[in-house]
Structures are given as C-alpha cells and as structure tokens.
Amino acid sequence: MLPVFIERSQGAPLDVSVCIDSDDIHRMERLTDLHVASSQLRSFEVMITGSFTDTAKDILSRFRDPAPLLVTLSIRFDHDLTDPGLVPLDADDAFGLLFGRQYPRLSSFSLKFLRPWTTPLSETLTTLTLASLFLSANDLYPCLKAVPNLKFLALLNVISTLSDDYTGAPDPISLDRLNTLYVHQPGGHYKHFEHLMSHLQIPRLSLACILMGESDTLNDDFISTLTHPVRLSHRLTRLVLELDGEPASKFYLHGVHDETFVISLCLPTTAVPQIFGAGGISLGSVLADTSNTTEFILRVDGENQTISVENLTYVFHCLSAIETLVVTGMPLDNVVGALTLLRDELQSPILPRLRSLYVRSIGADPLALVRYVGHRLEPGLPYPRIVCPALLKDALGSRFEVEAIEDLGATGFPRPLTVPEPMQEFLKANLDWDELDWLMERKHWNWN
Q1: Cα-flanking dihedrals φ and ψ of residue 236, to 5°?
Q2: 247: Cβ–Cβ under 8 A, 6 or more apart, which residues?
Q3: What does the pLDDT look like over 271-294, one tens digit per residue?
C-alpha cells in the first residue's frame, strides 16, 4: 500500500519502481499517492502497459511538487500503445511540468515511446536512454547538445530516419566524457548511423555496442559517406563476413573486441573495395582496426551464393594476423584464388600466422582443399591444423594434422560471436522481444 510505504519511510529517500496497466484505474489512482512524497523521491521508474490513455496522462500531471533528491527518472510505455513518440510534447503538458520542472540532481533519464522534453536535459545528466522513437536529427541533436557531461548514451530503435531533411549546423557535438554507447536499429540505412557519428565527438569511448539491421534497399549515397573524418575507432579481435540469402548485393559484417566493442552492419557488396583496406575496415566516421584480428569466419547461407575472388582479395589483404579461419557454406575455390592473387601481388607468404582452418559445407570435391594446403607449403611456415568433414579427411592424406568434424565434441567447432553478458542484459531490459528477434536469429550471434 503506497500510503503505508510512504509513512514507513519516515522522510528517508524513496526508490520507486512500478509497472501498471493503464486500464487498471484503481492502481493508476494509487500511483498519485506518491506525489505528496515528491521531495523524498530518489528514483522514480514507471512502466505503463496498455494504451496511452488520458487517465495515464492525467495521473502524471498531478506530480507538480519539486523533487530535489531525484537522481533517476524513467517513464516507459509498452509497444502496444498508440505511439506518443510521434506526437510533439507541449511545454505545458503532463511531462513538461513534471515535478514543477525542479529536479536539480537528476543524472539518469530513460524514456520509451515518449519524446524527450527540455527540462531534464541539462549538464547534470550523465545517463540518457531513448527507446522506440522516431527522432530526426533536428530533434535529437539539440537534446545531445544540452547534455555535455553524458557518460552513457543508448539510442535503441531511434535513428531509422535520423538524417532525413536535416537543417541544422554541421558542427560536431562534443561529448568528451562519454564512455559507453549503445546504438540498436533493426531497420534503416547505414547512412543514418553515419550521420550520427559524423556529428559527434567522442574521444574517450571505452565500450560500444553498435547493432544495425538490414534494409530492404541499399543506400544510393553509401560511397560518399566513406570520406568523413574518423569519429569512432576500435580494434577487432574476431570478424564475420556473411552472405545470408537474397539479395547477393549486400552482406553482413559482425565484429567484436573482447568484452568492450561489438558491431553488426548490413553493407552493400559493391563497397567492399572501399570498406576493406590495409589493416582496417573504413566506414566513413567509423574505423575498425583489423591488424590484430585473429579469427575470421566466412559464411554463406544462401544457395548459389558466393563471394567473388576480387572482393575476397580486399578482405584478406586487411586480415594479415589471422590465426583461425572458418569457411562454411561455399566452395574454397574463390578463397584459394584470392589468396593466390594476394600472394602474387605482395610477393610474400599469405596468412603467415594461420594455425587452424575449419571448413564445413564446402562441397564433396576435395581438390580446392588440397590446393589450399598446397599453397601453404612455403618455407618456414607451419602446417595449419585442418578440421573438415570426414569425407574430405582421407583426401588430404597423413602428412597434415587433420581432424573430422564428426569426431569433435559440441564445443570443438568455433562458436558464434557472443554478445557480452552485460550488453545482453542491458538490451534485454530495454527492448521488446520482437525488437530482439532479428539479433537472436543472426547465425553468428550467440545469446545466453
């Protein structure tokens, strides 16, 4: 009972977290009992399920007393409502006048299906989470300019139309203290993420989770976005390049660095020569350093699809430190062809650090695999350990270290890339299951 809860607090700071159905009028009315304790609130987290009703808005409009102790404010509506995020908030509505616009200690602010309003966006804010909105850059960038001391920023299903009709200044927004960034967008062009990064300065970022989904169409101006100054740079230790069904004009790029950096993008195949360079992957404002990438997974899931020799040459050129190579779902011919071209071009051994080659679903003809091993017989280079289907094992003879996949245990074949546990927990807590579906269905993302 809220009145008893307030009475027992005896003036101590209150941490309130409630989930209420908007149709439950009785419980919604009980929520208003808390407004008399506004001066005690330290955290106020409200999740309202159901439709966005006038009752819900009326209840929140009663919180007019100042909240001088309030540090955390979270107001979230579920995904079934008529989206209020599409409706601009008036300065005098229930949210704009919340707590009389007086919460001087507010440092953490979270909204879902609700547009941000001006008052909470100040220099005191260090954590900002916005979820399930449609915000243009004209809406978002002024918000970010108002919070220069942010340390944590999450934009979850927010930037699908970000760069459309932008009329603001090109000057970058300085977020010098930002150390954690989440961007999740299951649909929408890469250009919107590029637009975001080109307008931010983030010199101290230590953790980033960038998950951009596939688009129905590709960006016409993708190539032009590759010339922007680098705003975000990080090393990758593991990398996946994947073709997953139609169309063959796009591919998926997934990469991680230990527990601190995750990136997943859908990109146009025609841009491979511009994206993959010596020692790195260039994506306009984003640069992924591959000079220390030790594991590379090359996967094709669609029938009659493959990656051209020319494109693979560009890819392998920036992956000189590979120790483990995994090829599944495509014949090795193009891989062999690309490595041969690269060796002839560089006049030096290719993949000198390679120690393990895993192949699966590459066809029944062992010739390409034999040719590949033959290309590895260069002075001073050790033979790689080869893991392949049993039917190919005998074709390689006893000269090499060869194991059959069928003889390995459940953990013998390289596991999919794993989204680090802290990132998983944050995404699960802030997204609906349907928004997570596309991530969980990814062949190379493992969710605990």
Answers
A1: -115, 135
A2: none
A3: 898 899 877 898 888 889 999 999
